[in-house]
Specification:
Chains A, B: This is TetR family transcriptional regulator. Chains A, B: Keywords: DNA-binding, Repressor, Transcription, Transcription regulation. Chains A, B: Pfam families: TetR_C_6, TetR_N. The structure is a homodimer of 207-residue chains. With 207 residues, chain A is mainly α. Chain A has two domains: 1-51, Arc Repressor Mutant, subunit A (Orthogonal Bundle); 52-195, Tetracycline Repressor, domain 2 (Orthogonal Bundle), CATH 1.10.357.10. Chain A is 70% helix and 0% strand. Chain A is built from eight helices and no strands. Chain A starts with 6 loop residues before the first helix and ends in a 12-residue tail after the last helix. The interface between A and B is large, with 53 and 53 residues. The first copy, chain A, binds a DNA duplex (30 and 30 nucleotides) through loops.
Chain lengths: 207, 207
DNA sequence: TCGTTTTTTCTATGACTGTAGAGAATAGCG
DNA sequence: CGCTATTCTCTACAGTCATAGAAAAAACGA
């Protein structure tokens, strides 16, 4: 029997190589040749694992979402209400180099989704899932009396969704005015508005 | 003397054709041939007006910003404070078909800006200009007593910037949950948070 | 009507792309 | 050591793209 490779693991290596290329050289630089080279292979070696480029990209984009979702689940474990909401949003905000790179991936993804129905659906599903989480956490916050604002939960969830998505853009394209510290302060400022001026953010582990 | 064309006007025709193509078929469909055809010309006719594709795109993107800025100037004339702020943001939000198409343009633009220094600078300058306007309007609102929130103006301006940018994405990729009506309500909800629960939006001219 | 100058068309070119598939290289097993 | 199934390399191909530039067309003044 010949050399045996773990196909799933290999796929993950290729996805990570893709991820690095897009973060470094943008989507234009993400050619099959470049990706293969980055992963340490020659041109045609990707085909057995991803028969087409679109398969590779779809898998790569999905993986970024899964990564974020896993982080969010871990970060909100044991929390509820505004505390959970804050932890949740902080996992999406580009607050470190890794998440800034994720922003560099998601922007090209949005552009693809504009003309690719299946990617648009993938995005819509993920965003709907996030929105549902936010609404749940807002509901908890209402019940706990943490949330006194006379604005509908739907609108608040919309604010937060647009805020964290917009932050993907500003963090990458205007880093001077939207540094991690500033984005973090922005989120806490918004939560303070929600709480009616009484919300104080937990001690923030620096960096 | 031969046929004479107004070069500036011709450039504008070409930019509008580009704009239509990108809105309809996405950035991938915006080839020189397609743009020329859309404008009613043959392949090579663009060169005298835009020597290279990048020149054309840079001009087209700049034009969208100018268009938005002109609209904002008109919409805020005679207003100040929160009223001006509201009118200002409403000109950026994708509240009608035209502005939804602008969102379809700006998303590919962001992606280009990720790896194109000059486009990144163009974006940063425009965003900085908008942010300055917002800060000015917030200052007016503070002086007029419209704004009681105990959150810094910098953070509020950041909220609004991220909100209107995020709305470009949600409006196009999740139109079901971010319709013009919902985005408009979101903005007013946020302003209500700012005013401390007392802000009531002016009668909205429907559509 | 003709001639000149601008404008536009049309074809060619070279670069780059994703994909395909034949062959070589490789590694585990007898 | 040798066999064989798997993995990988390499070359080739068809398509698309931006761009260049020669030639044709058009329009205005005389």
């Amino acid at each position: 029997m010949p050399k045996i490779v773990d196909h799933d693991q290999r796929r993950m290596e290729l996805v990570n190589a893709t991820w690095r290329i897009i973060a470094r050289h943008g989507m234009e630089g993400a050619t099959m040749r470049e990706i293969a080279t980055e992963a340490g292979f020659a041109n045609g070696a990707l085909k057995p694992y991803f028969p087409t480029k679109d398969d590779l990209l779809a898998f790569a984009f999905g993986h970024v979402f899964n990564q974020t979702n896993a982080r969010m689940a871990a970060a909100t474990r044991g929390l509820s209400g505004l505390g959970a909401l804050r932890a949740f949003c902080r996992e999406i905000l580009p607050l470190d180099e890794n998440r800034i790179n994720e922003a560099r991936i998601v922007i090209p993804f949005w552009q693809k989704a504009l003309t690719d129905e299946s990617k648009a659906r993938l995005h819509d599903d993920a965003m709907e899932q996030w929105r549902t989480h936010l609404l749940q956490q807002l509901h908890e916050a209402r019940e706990a009396g943490e949330l006194r604002a006379e604005v509908g939960d739907e609108d608040i969830a919309g604010h937060l969704m647009n805020l964290v998505l917009g932050a993907q853009i500003t963090a990458v394209l205007s880093p001077a005015h939207y540094s991690p510290d500033q984005l973090s302060a922005q989120l806490d400022g918004y939560l303070q508005l929600l709480a009616g001026g009484t919300f104080s953010s937990p001690a923030v582990e620096k960096k």
